[in-house]
Every structure is written in structure tokens, then in C-alpha cells.
Amino acid sequence: MTGIGSKLSSIISQIGETSLLKLVLGMIVTIVLDMGVPTIAAYMLAASVSAPAFNSL
Known about the structure:
The chain is an all-alpha fold. The chain has helices spanning 4-15, 19-36, 39-54.
């Protein structure tokens, strides 16, 4: 409802000019999400946030 997932995805796409930088940013987002929620939910959230950013790889 806040739109944070699409905002994070667009930030990863804008900042990450190279594919390696996008992967590192996706890793950081996954680690941060894993701190607050259970493992399965964290990776589901990370996949839904990171997938649009990685779509252009």
C-alpha cells in the first residue's frame, strides 16, 4: 500500500548502471529485508522487489 517495493525497484534500476552493481544492490536489499521478517517471506519480498530491476539485464 505504500509502494515501497516499486520505489526500491526503480532506485535499483536508476543507481545500478551495470549488471554487477544491480546485483550488489539487490543483495543489499535482500539482506536488509531478511533482518525483519522470516526467511521465506524475506526471499519472496526480495524476489518481487528485485525482479523488475533485473528484468533489463
